[in-house]
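Q: Got a minute? One more chain.
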Amino acid sequence: MVYQAGANLGAMVASGELDAAIGAGRVDSPDVKPLIPNAREAEAAWYQRTGLYPINHTVVVKDSLLQADPTLAPRLFNAFKEAKAAFLQQLSAGTALSGEAQALAQRRSLVGDDPLPYGLACNRKTIEAVIQFAQSQQILPRQVSPEEIFASNTLDLE
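A: Always. Here it is, folded:
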């Protein structure tokens, strides 16, 4: 199947054209339900039980680009860190927040002041679990260390 960019995923799920979607938003159909009905509560329970914080996004850069410019990875890391600092100030300021920002603000009560931890050190336990899950599901063909999936000149950045 080929889909157009910008296609309405929710409508496609409701019509049966797609079996499932991530990030489809609200779907006005009694036949479409979330896979995990109380996702926020389930996420909180998982975190409290395991101490694993779900990683939802990553930044991936081709090795060839990192080799061509050794300053690229640290510059990207620091740019994201600066943007996050501004966002965290916005969360603390109590200004009007989008739905996603409100969810992150609420998550602070569970995980502490930083609901968006960056870097290897603060994410090690979760990254090790992701690697283990990927290996057991045969997504990864071999054992990898968390250090292998970070640019070496970002390993100490926080």
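A: The mean pLDDT is 88.
Q: Perfect, thanks.
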